[in-house]
Each structure stands twice: as C-alpha cells, then as structure tokens.
Amino acid sequence: MKRLVVIIGILSLVSCSEEKQKKETIESSIVANEENEKALKESLIETEKAEQEMMKSLTTMSFDKVDHDFGSIKEDTDNKVLFKVNNTGKYPLIISRVSASCGCTSPKKPTSPIAPGKSDVIEVVFHPTNSTQKEQKKTITVEANTDPQITILSIHASVLPK
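Now predict its structure.
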C-alpha cells in the first residue's frame, strides 16, 4: 500500500512538472521579440503591397436596374429577368460569384470578363412553389473586382396559387 502511495506521488510530481514545462513553452512562444516583430512588419508590408496591386485592377460597374418587380405571377412557373451590367471602369470586370438568397431563385453570371465600356447580363430565374405564395422579395448578391466588392440586386413578386 505504501508503495502505491509513493508511486502515485511520484507520477503526480512528474505530470505537474511536464504541465509546467508545456505552459512555459507556450508562453515563451507568444512573447514579442525583435525577430517575430520584424517578421510581422515584413508580413504587413507584403500584405499592403498586395492590396495596392489589387486596387490597381479594380474597376466599376453599373446596372440598368437593381430591382425588378414581376408583379402577380403563378406558383410553379419560371419567371426570368435579365440585369444588364456595364463595365464603367478602366479594367476588365470579373464577376467572381453570383448567389441568391433562396433556392427558388437561380442566377447565372457572365462566364468571361467584361471589357471596359462593354456590357453583359446576369440572368435570374424565379420559380416560386406553393410554399412561396403571397408577397415575395429575394436578393441576388453579385461579387466582382469592384469597390465595393458586393452589389445587391433584388426581385419581388406577388405569388398566386395555380
């Protein structure tokens, strides 16, 4: 019995010692010193250069409309609208992502960059079901190499039963 108590005592001392050593290692790895401050400053400089480079390629865009009202429509029908997007900037417009706020709305983005002064369309199909009856408003989020990076388009309709 005495042996067991002695063994448990020794094990607890060893494990406490290991925990203390781990804690000291972790604490020492986050202490600021000249070396990691220099690495941080270099990283910030690289990030700033990358942001400046990215800003050089930003362009601007405009839409013929940012909101479309389908009026009264029937459930379980396809309702399509085209949003004309114009590149009003100096660099090619790259629309990286177009997403809808609801599964009943399907947007389709241009596949190629839009040259300065040119335009293309974002096609949106709204297909309401019986669970989307009454007044509906859906949004389409457009992400592009513009400032601001995100533009919100919207559609709305009064959905009637078949």
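Residues 2-56 form one domain.
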